[in-house]
Amino acid sequence: MTAEQDTKVRAGEDVIAGGAVGRSNDSPPIVWLARLGAVFVALQAYVYIRWITSDQFVAAPTGPDKIPGGTMVGIRVSEAVCIVGGLIYIAWFIRKTLRDRAFPAMGVFVVAWSLAAWQDPGVNWIRPVFGYNSGFFNRGTWADFIPGWIFKGAENPQPIWYWLATYFLFMPLSVMGLDKLIRTIRSRSPRINTAGVIALLFVMFTTLDIVLEELLIHLGLWAYPRVNHTWSIFTGTMNQFPLYEGVVFGGIVSVLTIIVYCFRDKHGHMITDAGIDRLRSKRAVTIVRILALTAVFNLVMLVFNMGFNMVNQHADTMPANVPSYIHNQMCGLGPNPPCPPPS
Prior knowledge:
The protein is an all-alpha fold and 343 residues long. It has ten helices and four strands; from the N terminus they run H-H-H-H-H-E-H-H-E-E-E-H-H-H. The strands form two sheets. A two-stranded antiparallel sheet has the order 1-2. A hairpin with a 7-residue loop joins strand 3 (232-233) and strand 4 (241-242). Helix 8 packs antiparallel against helix 9. The protein is globular. The N and C termini lie far apart (71 Å). This is Spirocyclase AveC family protein. Keywords: Membrane, Transmembrane, Transmembrane helix. It holds the Pfam family AveC_like. The chain crosses the membrane at residues 32-53, 73-94, 101-118, 160-178, 198-223, 243-263, 284-304.
């Protein structure tokens, strides 16, 4: 065998074995995810810019019904908690980054989860079933500017400070707490496997979502004016709550995001970091990690919204009276006319 033939044989063996030669031209999984994440970022930038520069970037009116004093106190207190808590969290985060001289995994998680927040109005994509109290500080909503959104007239106003804190503060803090809880459980009960931990998290987050949402609904911060009677509690009242929301978002969506962060390898890498060691530019590692995780979180939210809207086609129960600061002139709710057929 000549030297040239020997070289070709060795190269063929490398290709078959999946060695460096055979995979040198293939992008690692993290890069493919990052490309998709970049598409989601570009899409939401387009949506936000159109919303902010439009004449719809104004506060939604509360309508003729007066918001109870206790509810307004709850709204303002929650907004204060969101703002102060957010500033404290940012200060802590900057300090940690400077101290460790590295962008932490939680930072990747926070930014990526925040870049999925644009899908928040998605539960009302086909028909309105959910309403924030318009007493929150708001500037309307960007829903009408989302490509493919079904135009129905007035939409649910987004509570700016609370909306930001949900994705930027509350979810990350919950995940950090649960990360410590998982470590504690595994240290005290080493025999419990990953499936057992995931099952426990699912039950915990589903229960937590139902309890907290019902509490905030009772306070009047938001409501589900239209639900599926079979799978809901307190039906026919302003306190009605769809249990399937608690199971799907509180359980499945939350646990999926928790798994991504909490089940890291010994190097601190998440599932979405597959192939990170093959990145040529080390300076771009953090951005690529964020974009890859952004893709996953956006896909999770997209699937959730699609499923929730399918279930909403069977939402048949509404309270007798829905206050104007909750229905926000959305079609099919309270005294408002029925929604027009999709065009």
